Amino acid sequence: MTIAYDDALRAQIQERLAAHDRSAVIDPTKRHAAVAVVLVDSEIGEDRVDPAPLDDWLDGRPLPDELLDGHMIDVAGGAAFLLCRRTSRLRTHAAQWALPGGRLDPGETVIEAALRELDEEVGVRLPESSVLGLLDDYPTRSGYVITPVVIWGGGRLDLRPAPDEVLAVYRVGLHQLQREDSPRFINIAESPRPVVQIPLGNDLIHAPTGAVLLQLRWLGLEGRHDRVDELEQPTFAWR
């Protein structure tokens, strides 16, 4: 069942974010970044064809499962969030799933950075009044502390992805976060912490993006205050 994109959902998420005892990470050895968790409207069936050329995006990387082909199709419908497929030409974190975002510029707040990155990467300009609140900080293996900024898009929005950074942008229904097979956890030899996997479409979304999306589900949709900062990333995301 899809989730209605309406004022009731906006109020629910905003109230739950305000009531949450947010975990903030202060670590001077890490750089600070922000990601935009943008909530928009979407229509069932609008994404039956994946706009991205997967051969270019995969760039020789193996898929995580023989039953998964990497396509992000048939995920739209009702309230949704924006998910980016990054190009394989980036110097760091190429060919990965990501939320719009990046490193804070000097003097920027996390809200200012998230809104700026949303404009630069996806071509969407929104005011600070559209921000609903913040999720917990997530420290990454690659040397960042990521602050997720939850933003109400106010409709479908006209998406214009920056070709140098983003191969395609997808509207993924929030109901997809509540699939019966989600979340998944696996163990790896390199860490005692479980690696989190969020099945979406025909692929798996890993931390840090997967951890952010899991907390969006738990807190925003279900009212759970579980932490996600101890959930591990796969080793390919450590660099």
Automatic annotation (TrEMBL):
Instruction: Tell me the domain of life.
Output: Bacteria
What cofactor is this protein dependent on? Mn(2+); Mg(2+)
Q: Cite the entry's keywords alphabetically.
A: Hydrolase, Magnesium, Manganese, Metal-binding
Task: Please give the SUPFAM superfamilies that the UniProt record associates with this protein.
Answer: Nudix
Record keyword Transmembrane helix present = no
**Annotated signal sequence range:** none
Q: Which Pfam families match?
A: NUDIX
Molecular function, one GO term: metal ion binding
Q: Which residues form the Nudix hydrolase domain?
A: 30-196
What InterPro entries does this protein's entry cite? CoAse, Nudix_hydrolase, NUDIX_hydrolase-like_dom_sf, NUDIX_hydrolase_CS, NUDIX_hydrolase_dom
Spell out the family assignment given in the record's similarity comment: Belongs to the Nudix hydrolase family.
Q: What is this protein called?
A: Coenzyme A pyrophosphatase
Source organism of the structure:
Mycobacterium gordonae
Q: What is the lineage of its organism?
A: Bacteria, Bacillati, Actinomycetota, Actinomycetes, Mycobacteriales
